[in-house]
Amino acid sequence: DAKTTQPPSMDCAEGRAANLPCNHSTISGNEYVYWYRQIHSQGPQYIIHGLKNNETNEMASLIITEDRKSSTLILPHATLRDTAVYYCIVRSLIQTGANNLFFGTGTRLTVIP
Amino acid sequence: ETGVTQTPRHLVMGMTNKKSLKCEQHLGHNAMYWYKQSAKKPLELMFVYSLEERVENNSVPSRFSPECPNSSHLFLHLHTLQPEDSALYLCASSALYRNNSPLHFGNGTRLTVT
Known about the structure:
Chain A is mainly beta and 113 residues long. Chain A has no helices and nine strands. Chain A has strands spanning 9-13, 18-23, 31-38, 45-50, 55-56, 61-64, 70-75, 84-92, 107-112. In chain A, a hairpin with a 5-residue loop joins strand 6 and strand 7 (70-75). Chain A starts with 8 loop residues before the first strand and ends with a strand. With 114 residues, chain B is mainly β. Helices cover 0% and strands 56% of the residues of chain B. Chain B has no helices and eleven strands. The relative contact order of chain B is 0.34. In chain B, strands 2, 4, 5, 6, 9, 10 and 11 form a seven-stranded mixed sheet that branches. The A-B interface holds A 32, 34, 36, 41-46, 49, 51, 91, 93-106 and B 2, 4, 31, 33, 35, 42-43, 45, 48-50, 55-56, 90, 92, 94, 96-97, 99-108.
């Protein structure tokens, strides 16, 4: 699986958009980009995933560059409850059976009142 | 509520004790996972079960023994642990044969070995 690089920490003002970057320059054509977050004392929570098109759901938007070497997770209106560690993970499509995910160190997002 | 329930939430055990962690999922999934999260470290994948068969053992010491009696339940049996095994143990599940199926995690068992 391709390695990902994320900034260790970021701050965002409450009510503003939080843009979390992720570099995955060695990504291959069949690998998806997944985003999870982990709020303190809880298990990781799935946010969104994509292959090459931009994706949006009720939690966030995922913007993947045309060359797929980087992506940005966007929380459009950050709230204090969005304070968490955000993980960007790349995983191959060609995986029959279980879907093991390998987590890095992520970005610690702090939403400031 | 994530659909994945782990018990107990907290556990303190001595190095000579034997205990078990339990995980139950209500999502109809057929793959289950154990992860370990130590302080200041990334999540480490420990074991993977696919259709109740262990498909991955990520170099985990034998003092950790997993069991998957059916697709809804997963156990982690612990014996003669060391203080460095103190960590948050997380269970997850996913749907097989859907290659982009996300993992659903429980909230973990916080284990302290004294």
